[in-house]
Amino acid sequence: MAAESRKLFPFSNDFQELEDNMNPNSYLDKTFTVNDPDARIRQADLVQFEKYADGDQLPPGKKVGDVKLIPVGTEVRLTAALIGSGKRPFVFAEPAAGGAPFGWTAASNFRGRLVNETIGLVAASGDLAFQGTNRTVTDAHAFVRSGPPDFASTGEVLALGTFVVVTEVKNQFSKVSRGEAQEGEIITGDEFGWTRSSNLTDGWSNRFGPNAAWDDGKFIGQKDLVNIVGNQDQTEQVTADSLDHYLALAAAAKADGIVLSIESGFRTYDQQKFLFDHQHDPGFNTAAAPGTSNHQHGQAFDLNSGGFSGDPIYDWLKENAPALGFIRTVSKEHWHWEFRPNEANHPPGRFKRNGVNP
Ligand SMILES: [Zn+2]
Question: What is the CATH number of domain 221-339?
Answer without folding.
Answer: 3.30.1380.10
